[in-house]
Amino acid sequence: ALFGDWEPVADGLWLPKRIQIASYVSARNPEPQWNRPDVLMERLVEAIAVNDQVPESIFTIAYPQGTIIRDSINERAYRVEEDGATTDVTPSHT
């Protein structure tokens, strides 16, 4: 990633307002395609806030009923029920 347009946001702290990201083709592709960008992305930051009070609720995700959540770290899958609870589901049902 390339970072640019650095801006001072707090005493001694600078953060980039522009981030460019290049994703390269997989090594599973034919060798002539290797080391070539597959996707180029640019992210522009519109606002930066440091040490603002953030409500804890901003970190809680409310998934719609029926959503399947795949947890690749614990190798499990869950379905979100009507009341927000989760039910284990087998990989064959996901």
Verbal overview:
The strands form two sheets. A three-stranded antiparallel beta sheet has the order 1-2-3, with no helix packed on it. It starts with a strand and ends in a 5-residue tail after the last strand. β1 and β2 form a beta hairpin. 0% of the residues are buried. With 94 residues, it is an all-beta fold.
Task: Report the structural category.
Answer: mainly beta
* Structure summary, number of beta strands: 6
Gap from first CA to last CA: 34 Å
Which overall shape is indicated by the principal axes computed on the Cα atoms?
flat
Strand order of the largest sheet: 1-2-3
Whole-angstrom Rg: 20 Å
* Percent range of helical residues: under 10%
Strand % is 35-45%
Overall pLDDT metric: 88
Low-confidence stretches: none
Reported for the largest beta sheet, the result is: 3 strands, antiparallel
Q: What's the helix count?
A: 0
Q: Helices and strands, in N-to-C order?
A: EEEEEE
